[in-house]
Amino acid sequence: MKKMQRRKTMDSRETLLEVKNIKKYFKGHARGKPVKAVDDVSFSIARGETLGLVGESGCGKSTLGRTVLNLIRATEGQVLYAGKDLTKLPEHEMRQMRQKLQMVFQNPYSSLNPRMTVLEAVRAPLDIFNIGTKEERFERSREILKYVGMDEYQIYRYPHEFSGGQRQRIVIARAIISSPDFVVCDEPVSALDVSVRAQVLNLMQDIQRERGVAYLFISHDLSVVKHISDRIAVMYLGKIVELATRDELYENPKHPYTQALLSAIPIPDADVQKERILLKGDLPSPMDPPKGCVFHTRCPFAGERCRTQAPDFRNISDGHGVACHLCEEGTT
């Protein structure tokens, strides 16, 4: 019953941002081949939703997040928000859009200016977008810092005087102070220990419930993604290979790569035995991806068709999409 209610709520949400066939290729050095960091990716995010994005290091997750926000220009494709294609906007128009499209970067130690006080760093978006009077900006900055758990006496301190968890709270405060609709969170808790990680995740969920912000939550930690996401996209070598609701993905994974990732999640019970799916080989180079299915070089079930023909991404059930020949043949 709860799962049905959750699905009904998800289906009724308004689409906030739509990514269509986005590609990001970088100029390569070997034989002039491009590095296909993001290769034909499509998805949408609803208002107030969290889409988790998981995959191995080097699969293109961070590049995808930055491309969606137009921090780096897409090679091809569209990112549609508020009736506009962000990939086609000139810089001055994109600058105004950034009031509603923000990012929490992976490293809180490098994403804060060491010469700015916490108050100055958090107030910066209000100054840039010319929101409110000088007194209103100060008051709003003070309130948002209090909201994320910072004390009054700390607002004039500098970033080096804070712990990693405190810095990440400051970065989150800076991201939400302009009341954005959408925030890309690039490994926002990977540098934090477990207890602080839980506090930051709970803070992000509180912000979402109260302000209706949507997240693209990038992480390699499947336990964290399960805790915070509504839907989850699995990325491999620049492509989305599976996308489903959180419960569906964890209970009924279809792609062999997803199955392998889920088998690696540790279980906090020594008496429970879990079969681990070990993948052979390393992640191929995005400069020279395999022909056919990009995963076939490491897939234990790959056949001749997988080596020669790339699978289409298709829906196998309501809201569950996968790019795998085995699913088409009904063998998974």
Poorly predicted regions are 1-5
Helix-strand pattern: HEEEHEEHEHHHEHEHEEHHHEEH
Label the overall shape.
Answer: globular
Rg from C-alpha positions?
Answer: 21 Å
Counting helices, strands and paired strands, the structural category is alpha/beta
| Spatial separation of the terminal alpha carbons | 27 Å
- The CATH class of the largest domain is Alpha Beta
Tell me the strand order in the biggest sheet. Answer: 6-7-8-3-9-10-12-11
Spell out the CATH superfamily of the largest domain.
P-loop containing nucleotide triphosphate hydrolases
**If you average the pLDDT, what whole number results?**
89
The name CATH uses for the topology of the largest domain is: Rossmann fold
The helix count comes to 12
Number of strands: 12
Under the CATH scheme, the architecture of the largest domain is 3-Layer(aba) Sandwich
Biggest sheet, in brief?
Answer: 8 strands, mixed
DSSP strand content: 15-25%
Please provide a brief summary of the model.
The protein has helices at residues 2-11, 61-68, 91-97, 118-128, 134-147, 164-176, 194-211, 222-228, 246-251, 256-263, 304-308, 325-328; strands spanning 15-26, 35-46, 50-54, 76-81, 84-85, 101-104, 182-186, 214-218, 231-236, 239-245, 314-317, 320-322. It is an alpha/beta fold and 332 residues long.
